[in-house]
Design goal:
Blueprint: E1 2-6, H1 17-26, E2 31-34, H2 43-48, E3 55-65, E4 71-77, H3 84-110, H4 117-121, H5 132-141, H6 148-156, H7 171-180, E5 184-188, H8 204-210, E6 214-218, H9 224-237, E7 240-243, H10 263-272, E8 279-280
Parallel strand pairs: 1-2, 2-3, 5-6, 6-7
Antiparallel strand pairs: 3-4, 3-8, 4-5
Helix pairs in contact: 5-6, 7-8
Amino acid sequence: MIDLHTHTNISDGTDSPRELINKALAQGITTIGLTDHDTVGGWDEAISALRPGIDLVLGSEISAQTSDGISVHILGLLFDRHESELSQVLTNTRENRIGRMERIIGKLNAAGYDVTMDDVRAQLSEGATLGRPHLADALVAKKIVKSREEAFSELLHNNSAHYVSHYSPTPEVAIQHIKRAGGVAIIAHPFASLRGRTISVESFAPLVAAGLDGIEIEHRDHSTEDRQLCREIINTYELIETGSSDYHGTGKLNLLGESITTPENWEILASRATGGKVFRA
């Protein structure tokens, strides 16, 4: 089984990179993609945790935003982490998350919710990329809500009065940086409407022109109709179909390997990468 989209406690997952590798092995995953948000901070631990029987694909899920404020996530895989321009984009995005979090907390405080930045920091693992799931965990710890799911459905979703947008590159720029760093670029769950506004079919032409390689179709947040629309786009632009769990440990309901990529499609994707390699024990 090939699962190309997972998260650890280096961003908003709950497993360490080592725990992720061990769980993937136990679940029969043969190829696992580590794609923490806007960071490569978990790569070395994941490499050191490898054992025979599993291949490790290193990458990052890059937060992007269209000119009209629609959030888009681009999976970059097998890129050179030392490429300076992409590294700077990831750094800028992570640093902006701090000011954004402070503004969200300010809005929650104004609405009567007692939560602080220190409460949120208490939920982070060392070196982790800050995100709204950590705020959700702080709200759970303070018994304001019962779960991450409730926190997002009631207070932290993209249409909430407490939502604050953030710095991020456009999807086209994110893709261009991934390609310059020798990686492959896949748009993650593009029509997952429960997360907020989604891009249009027409938006794919400039993404393809920027170098988009594939679309993550098989994902629990895509309906049957969403998947069909994705396949029509793939046929139009000759892109590659992927499927992934978007696993976050106990942070989400998603299970390792619940959606997968075919070996044939993964072989095509991997053959396009020049910046990084697949790691094996």
